[in-house]
Amino acid sequence: MSDVKKLIENNRNWAAKTVDEQPDFFNELSEQQAPKYFWIGCSDSRVPANQITGLMPGEVFVHRNVANVVSSTDLNCLSVMQFAVEVLKVEHIIVCGHYGCGGVNAALGNQQFGLIDSWLSNIKDVYIKNEAKFKPIKNDEERSNLMCELNVMEQVQNVCNTTIVQNAWVRGQKLSVHGWCYSLKNGHIKDLEVTKDSTAGNHKVYQYDK
What we know:
Mean pLDDT: 95
Order of helices and strands: HHEHEHEHHHHEE
Strand content: 5-15%
Number of strands: 5
Strand order of the largest sheet: 2-1-3-4-5
Low-confidence stretches: none
Number of helices: 8
Largest sheet: 5 strands, mixed
């Protein structure tokens, strides 16, 4: 059996097991999508949003890209965010990075990788902004871990800077933005404690007129 056909077989087994345990699961799931959470995570195959948070299908709306970047020029990410906030009415946006991120590590170096270098420039800019914090750190893993956390923090602010999120807050919509970092070594999520639920934390140039 080919690797791909094995996935189809796994799917059938999973579906059958799910129906045995919850007979109405798929009927109920097909009728609505009402997640409370919008997850912006890394494309890394080791960081599946549902599994590491213990959530079922239908409980988390997901966007993933290399190194969980939120860029003002990324229409894909912004379109997904707009749908999550304005249509699904999610209550929480979670930016989740992970330690040991290949994209972050690549951004810390000087090697060229091709097209992705333009994408990684977003992270290099975060490094330049926080360069003084790295000077006393000599250990490569510690530098990487710090960069992963700073990158998440920056992307949280980028989320808050969008008119999508700001307009939701102006409307009085219940919405919080969180920054987390996941450890591949122990499976634990670290809350970076940068949660925001209003425009108060935005620089004044990102506080648009109501």
